[in-house]
Write a structure and sequence with these properties.
Function: Required for the formation of a threonylcarbamoyl group on adenosine at position 37 (t(6)A37) in tRNAs that read codons beginning with adenine.
CATH architecture of the largest domain: Alpha-Beta Complex
Radius of gyration: 19 Å
Shape: globular
Catalytic activity: L-threonine + hydrogencarbonate + ATP = L-threonylcarbamoyladenylate + diphosphate + H2O
Number of strands: 15
Structural class: alpha/beta
Keywords: ATP-binding, Cytoplasm, Nucleotide-binding, Nucleotidyltransferase, Transferase, tRNA processing
Distance between the termini: 31 Å
InterPro entries: DHBP_synth_RibB-like_a/b_dom, Sua5-like_dom, Sua5/YwlC_C, Sua5_C, T(6)A37_SUA5, TC-AMP_synthase_SUA5
Largest sheet: 11 strands, mixed
Organism: Hoeflea halophila
CATH topology of the largest domain: DHBP synthase
CATH superfamily of the largest domain: DHBP synthase
CATH class of the largest domain: Alpha Beta
Strand order of the largest sheet: 1-8-2-3-7-4-6-5-9-10-11
Oligomer: single chain
Helix content: 25-40%
Order of helices and strands: EHEEHEHHEEHEHEEEHEHEEEHEH
Length: 324
C-alpha cells in the first residue's frame, strides 16, 4: 500500500531516508515536477526507477545534488558551468557536464555516456539529498512518456502501488521540468527548454545559447526529455487550434475563446490573464484534467513562443507527436 506523507510531518524526512537506504524509490516534490528518486550510485536502486516507470534504459537520468561540493565530486565544472551554477542553483537548471573518472554515479544513471546531467533542487528534495549524503537520480514520477505529475495525487493516480512512499508537498511552483544545457567550454547548447527561459540564461552569461537539432545529435539521446513522443495524455492532442469540434476538450490561453467551444466536453484556460508563468504551472495539470473527461482529442490554442512559452510549446509538441 502506497503511503502519502505530508511534507510538514516530522517523521516524513526519516521515512523517505529509510526507503532510500534500502534501495527503493521515493516520489518527491520539487519546484519543477514530482520526481521518482533513488540512489544514483546504486545500480539496483537505479534499475527500480527504470522498472517502475517502464523507461527505456538508453534515456539518461538527472542526478540531483545537495550542493556544489557534491556536484564537483562527480562532474567537472568549467568556468562557465560554475557561473551558471552560481546564478541559478538551487533551481530549475540542469547542466550536462563531463563525468569525473572517480565519480560514483553509476553508468545506468548516465546511460553509459561520458557526461552526467546534474541539478540542485530547492527545498525538501535538497534537504533530503544532504541527509542521504549521495546524489539522487530522479526523473518525473510517472509512467514513461506520460504527462508529468505536479501534485502528489497525480503520482498516486499514475504509479498506484508501484512505489512505497509519496511525499506530498502540494502543487509544484514551476510546473515544468528543468531547462537542460550542455556546457562545452565557452559554448552553451539547449537540450531541453524548461523552467528557466533561454533569454534569462543569455542575459546572465552574455553568451548565446545554441539550439539542438537532429543533425547535431546524430542518433543518440544525451539528456532526458528529448524523445519525440513524450508528456502524452491518452487523448490525441491538436495544437494551434482556432476552433473546437464537438466532443473535444479545449485548452485555451489568455481568455480567448475558440470558435465552437460551446460544444466541447470541457474548456480550460492555462492563464486567463495571458501569464506564461501561470500557464507553465498549470500545463500538466490541465492536460490531465482534459484527459480525464474522456475526450478522444484535446484542442490546444496557440501559446506565445517567447520566455517560458518555448518550454510550454516544447511539451505540447511532444504530447502531440505520433505515439511510439
Amino acid at each position: 500500500m502506497t503511503r502519502i506523507l505530508p511534507i510538514s510531518d516530522t517523521g516524513t524526512r526519516e521515512a523517505a531516508l529509510e526507503v532510500l537506504r534500502r534501495g527503493g524509490p521515493v516520489a518527491l516534490p520539487t519546484e519543477t515536477v514530482y520526481g521518482l528518486a533513488a540512489d544514483a550510485t546504486s545500480p539496483e536502486a537505479i534499475a527500480t526507477i527504470y522498472e517502475t516507470k517502464g523507461r527505456p534504459r538508453f534515456n539518461p537520468l538527472i542526478s540531483h545534488v545537495a550542493d556544489i561540493e557534491m556536484a564537483c565530486a562527480h562532474v567537472t565544472f568549467s568556468p562557465l558551468a560554475e557561473k551558471l551554477a552560481e546564478a541559478f542553483w538551487p533551481g530549475p537548471l540542469t547542466l550536462v557536464l563531463p563525468l569525473r573518472d572517480d565519480s560514483k554515479i553509476h553508468s545506468l544513471a548516465s546511460a553509459g555516456l561520458a557526461t552526467a546531467a546534474v541539478r540542485m533542487p530547492e527545498g525538501f528534495a535538497r534537504e533530503l539529498i544532504a541527509g542521504f549524503g549521495r546524489p539522487l537520480a530522479a526523473p518525473s514520477a510517472n509512467r514513461s512518456g506520460r504527462v508529468s505529475p505536479t501534485t502528489a495525487q497525480h503520482v498516486a493516480d499514475d504509479l498506484g502501488d508501484r512505489i512505497d512512499l509519496i511525499v506530498d508537498g502540494g502543487p509544484c511552483r514551476v510546473g515544468l521540468e528543468s531547462t537542460i544545457l550542455a556546457v562545452d567550454g565557452a559554448q552553451l547548447r539547449l537540450l531541453r527548454p524548461g523552467g528557466i527561459p533561454v533569454e534569462v540564461i543569455e542575459a546572465a552569461t552574455g553568451i548565446p545559447v545554441g539550439r539542438t537539432t537532429p543533425q547535431s545529435l546524430g542518433d543518440g539521446v544525451i539528456a532526458p526529455g528529448m524523445l519525440a513522443s513524450h508528456y502524452a495524455p491518452n487523448a490525441g492532442v491538436r495544437l494551434n487550434a482556432r476552433n473546437a469540434s464537438p466532443g473535444e476538450a479545449v485548452i485555451r490561453f489568455g481568455g480567448e475563446q475558440l470558435e465552437g467551444e460551446a460544444g466541447a466536453i470541457a474548456v480550460l484556460d492555462l492563464s486567463p490573464a495571458g501569464d506564461l508563468r501561470e500557464a507553465a504551472a498549470n500545463l500538466f495539470d490541465m492536460l490531465k484534467r482534459a484527459d480525464a473527461t474522456g475526450a478522444t482529442r484535446i484542442a490546444v490554442a496557440p501559446v506565445p513562443g517567447h520566455g517560458l512559452g518555448e518550454a510550454i510549446n516544447d511539451r505540447l509538441k511532444r504530447a502531440a507527436a505520433p505515439r511510439t
